[in-house]
Automatic annotation (TrEMBL):
One of its GO terms (molecular function) is electron transfer activity. Electron transport system for the ribonucleotide reductase system NrdEF. Belongs to the glutaredoxin family. Pfam families: Glutaredoxin. Residues 3-61 form the Glutaredoxin domain. The lineage of its organism: Bacteria, Pseudomonadati, Pseudomonadota, Alphaproteobacteria, Rhodobacterales. Keywords: Disulfide bond, Electron transport, Redox-active center, Transport. It comes from the Bacteria. The keyword Aminoacyl-tRNA synthetase does not apply. This is Glutaredoxin-like protein NrdH.
């Protein structure tokens, strides 16, 4: 499964999310929404207005969600 984390600089929830994924040994791609207009359009099209947005296979969510991260392991 591919995991992509769409984040922005100085985002506390983004940092918490990536640390939780790393702690579980999960690999992920990190995309900076402030540098990638297409990525910003994609997460907005999904209805999200806050970072981070995590897309993991068929699942996606916004914010720091340890419950969802736990389901990935």
């Amino acid at each position: 499964m591919t995991i992509t984390v769409y984040s922005k600089p100085a985002c506390v929830q983004c940092t918490a999310t990536t640390r939780a994924l790393e702690a579980r040994g999960l690999s992920f791609e990190l995309v900076d929404l402030t540098e990638d207009d297409a990525a910003m359009e994609r997460v907005q099209a999904l209805g999200y207005r806050q970072a981070p947005v995590v897309i993991a296979g068929e699942d996606h969510w916004a914010g720091f969600r340890p419950d969802m991260i736990g389901k990935l392991t």
